[in-house]
Specification:
Radius of gyration: 18 Å
Distance between the termini: 24 Å
Order of helices and strands: HEEEEEEEEEE
Largest sheet: 10 strands, mixed
CATH superfamily: Copper binding periplasmic protein CusF
CATH architecture: Beta Barrel
Helix content: under 10%
CATH topology: OB fold (Dihydrolipoamide Acetyltransferase, E2P)
Low-confidence stretches: 1-7, 14-25, 128-133
CATH class: Mainly Beta
Structural class: mainly beta
Strand content: over 45%
Mean pLDDT: 79
Number of strands: 10
Length: about 200
């Protein structure tokens, strides 16, 4: 059962591809958009997965499914799902879930945030407020390269891994430079829609 995410941007791409039955190359890098807050960008993906309910935790507002491939995944139930009580263990359901990647420019004087996993109800790193999610991770990444032609940005993780994101048209790429440090926060598996399926 997946309760801890071990990477940030890479997990964002791989989990989305798994839900669609494809490979990470099928969906490309996350496209970052302006949040309206200076120095902060976000990419949100919504995916769908079908499966059989294996566990419901009403207190924690989580739902666990086993998909047709036998993989088990736990979803936090977002505020849009109001009738979790209508679902029982053994029901076949379709879950629409959301993944969220946030990149926030860190001041030069701010300390780097080591890779920090957080679970349902726990606060994220860097003093950020808690978010509804079955799991997530936050860490400081560094801008390693910027390709202005295709608006691609290569990020370097704290242990040498590299990730690629793309700056959407709302991002002022001229303000970003190689060496900038960003707080990357990835949140996965927030269920935003739930529908029973015929078996």
């Amino acid at each position: 059962m997946r309760h801890v995410v071990t990477s940030v941007v890479l997990a964002f791409a791989v989990d989305g591809a798994r839900a669609q039955g494809g490979s990470p190359a099928d969906i490309g890098p996350p496209v970052m958009t302006n949040t309206g807050t200076p120095g902060k960008a976000e990419a949100i993906r919504t995916e769908k997965v079908t499966g059989v309910v294996t566990e419901i935790d009403a207190a924690k507002q989580t739902l666990t499914l086993r998909n047709p491939a036998g993989e088990v995944q736990t979803f936090a139930v977002g505020p849009l799902i109001r009738r979790l009580s209508d679902v029982t263990v053994g029901d076949a359901v379709l879950v629409e879930y959301q993944q969220d990647l946030t990149l926030e420019l860190q001041p030069a004087s701010a300390p780097s945030v080591p890779r920090t996993a957080f679970a349902l109800g726990e606060p994220a790193a860097g003093g950020r407020p808690a978010r509804v999610a079955s799991s997530g991770v936050a860490e400081t990444v560094t801008v390693a390269a910027i390709d202005k032609a295709d608006r691609g940005v290569m990020l370097l993780g704290p242990t040498g891994e590299t990730y690629r994101v793309k700056a959407g048209p709302s991002i002022n790429l001229a303000k970003l430079k190689v060496g900038d440090r960003l707080l990357a926060t990835y949140v996965q598996a927030v269920a935003v829609a739930l529908e029973k399926q015929a078996r």
